Amino acid sequence: MDILAEVLDRVRLGGTLLFHFELGHPWSLALPQRPYALFHYLSRGSASATLGFEQGRELRMSPGDFVVISRGEPHEIYSDRRTKPFSVLDLDRSSAHLGVVRHGGSAQPYSTMICGKFTVARPSRGSVLELLPPVLLLKPTEEGEWLEAILRRMVSESARERPGQGVALSRLTEVLFVEVLRSWIKSLGPGEGGWLGAMADPHIGPALQLIHEQPDRPWTLDDLGQRVGLGRSAFSARFTKLVGQSMYRYLIVRRMEEAAFLLESSDDGIARIATRVGYETVAAFSKVFLRHHGLSPGRYRAVRRSGDDGKQEDVLEAEVAD
Most buried among 150, 151, 217, 303, by the most CB within 10 A? Predict the structure, then answer.
């Protein structure tokens, strides 16, 4: 089982291109708080970025840099900090996707930048985004041709309206996010990145694999430790250090995520689902599920299948399109 592939598939990752900028010095853009992750790719020129929650810290961007604002916090990107920030919500353009947005002064250096978003349709299982740092900066590498190639294709796809454009952009964004994750995971040091980083550990990685493949098993520290070649205490300490939570806590979360997925995607009865995630009684299962998701299993299934949770208006795109 590819744990990362399974998680990405189930959270229904998506996204799209929001802006393609051509910027003349001096320029400054302000982006408001958003309910999704934002990304910025600087293909030419230079820029700096500051985030509202990190006053005083300035992130320098060079050509080829790719920045992800994982929690969608308000931030500014500029060539000159003294320039009054211009809100992207005030941009005068006829479409949220089509064409190039030209902004700023007329002086050199000129910069080009692509901005977009990553979304999670099932935020209750959006832990991948939550594991990323608030600001993720990826520098260009020898293997970085994939990034520019995907983004060039996104710009080309968004240049004019065509049938299936929204789906195409969403799929390209999904591939982009997977590649960003791979690059970030590769850069992690020991003990960094939560369970994403722990997957590479020779002991904890196989333990995570077992938990994901068989969430119904009554796993214990002794059992898993023996399976991966560690004693109980050493395994417990290593798991908590690398994953960021105890093995038992992780097992509960994994069971509740699997249960939620089964409630949405299958017609199995609640008793059957309880058994499939390791609970002998519906009462025990329902109690834990309610505590974890805030709804009873039956109510959760009804709400998810009604589609009410998925009707989230994209205010940023709607406003810039007006």
Answer: 151
